[in-house]
Structure formats: structure tokens, C-alpha cells
Amino acid sequence: MNNPIQLDLFATDDPEPLNGMYYEKKTNKFVSYVKGRRHFEVTPGRCLGDEAWKEKTMKERAI
Fold first, then answer.
1. pLDDT tens for residues 1-21?
2. pTM of this structure
3. Among 14, 33, 13, 12, CA closest to 22
4. Residue whose C-alpha is closest to residue 33's, from 49, 16, 45, 47
5. Which element (helix H / strand E) includes 58?
6. For residues 4-31, b (16+ Cβ closer than 10 Å) or e, as one string?
7. Can you give the C-alpha Rg of the chain in angstroms?
């Protein structure tokens, strides 16, 4: 009988994968990343954050 193999589903070669919400200049969208994988994207007009948060994210977390 074979022994089961434990897989690490979130293993990555990147030492610091992206996590959180970022503003992507190329697509002009807010994009969320979970452990380095693109999870969700939304245009600034449809984003539910207030204007101050949007401006701060566009300046400080642009990729």
C-alpha cells in the first residue's frame, strides 16, 4: 500500500508573495492578491472604498 503524500497547496518560490489590495496601473483596476495569486479585480468606479482610501491605495500600493 502507498503512503499518502501531503501537498502544500500554497507553496511558492517567491519569498514575499503579494497579499492584499493593490492598484494596477496597467489595467486601471484595484486588484486583490491572496498568497501571490490574483483573486479579485474591480474598476475604481465600482470599488466600494471611500475616495480617500482609493487615492491612498493608488499612491502607496500601485503595481
1. 678 777 665 665 656 788 999
2. 0.69
3. 33
4. 16
5. helix 51-60
6. eeeeeeeeeeeeeebeebbbeeeeebbb
7. 16
